[in-house]
Every structure is written in C-alpha cells, then in structure tokens.
Amino acid sequence: MSDTIGFRAAKTPKTEFVASLERGLRVLQTFSREHAQLTLSEVAVLTELSPATARRSLHTLEMLGYVGRAGRRFLRINDFESDDVVWMQRDKRAAAPASFRTQ
Predict the structure, then answer these.
(1) How far apart are alpha carbons 41 and 50 in whole angstroms?
(2) Residue 63, exposed/middle/buried by CB under 10 A (0-12, 13-18, 19+)?
(3) How many other C-beta atoms can be found within 10 angstroms of the C-beta atom of residue 29?
(4) Second label for 85, Cα 20 to 30 Å away, from 9, 29, 76, 92?
(5) Starting at the edge strand that comes first in sequence, how are the strands of the sheet with 67-70 ordered?
(6) pLDDT per residue over 26-79, tens digit each?
(7) CA distance linking residue 64 with residue 89, whole number of Å
(8) Count of other CB atoms within 10 angstroms of residue 49
C-alpha cells in the first residue's frame, strides 16, 4: 500500500523497523467509510496479508480496543476522536503533495 501512512517517514536504520507493527497499522487503516465493517477474509485481501497474519492482527487490535466484532465482521472503534475528525485527517493526507507521501 503506497500511502499507508500518508507522509514520508524519517529515514531510520532497517533494524529499527518493526514489521509486525506495520502490518497491524495496515490492518487498522483498512477500515474506512467504504469499508466500515470487514470480515477476516476481506481484511486479508485488502491488506495483502495472509489470513493467519490478518487474524492475529485483528485479534490483537480487538484485545487493545481498536476494533470490535459483530459476528464475523470487525469494525474500527475510535475512542479518541470522532469519525468526522478521523476521516478529515485521512482526506488531508490523501491530498498531500506526492513528494510528502510514502513511496
């Protein structure tokens, strides 16, 4: 996902990169107005992660209170901001000049 974070990250050594955190954030960022509720299979397809990795990420995010579950569907829970603020921030990141976006 080319603009997963939205802005170019600071250059740090590869040894400082936490791949599991990146995968969890990718799962969390999959939820949007268009994808407010997703099944495990949908998350795996949209994030291009294996179903096992998507399941572990969703389980962890659920245990931490970032996503909830309604039957077989997961939904993002925003305890810290209203949905309008979250989507406004996302829209601003998408509108940022290409030179500021993650490659």
Answers:
(1) 9
(2) exposed
(3) 17
(4) 9
(5) 37-39, 73-76, 67-70
(6) 999 999 889 999 999 999 999 999 999 999 999 999 999 999 999 999 999 864
(7) 22
(8) 18
Of 78, 3, 1, 2, whose CA–CA distance to 33 is shortest? 78
Tokens of 55: 């399941």
Which domains are present in the chain? 18-96 (1.10.10.10)
Q: Rounded distance, CA 86 to CA 103, Å?
A: 22
Q: Distance between CA 47 and CA 41 in Å, rounded? A: 10
Tokens describing residue 67: 């996503």
pTM for this predicted structure:
0.64
- Residue 73 in 3-state DSSP? strand
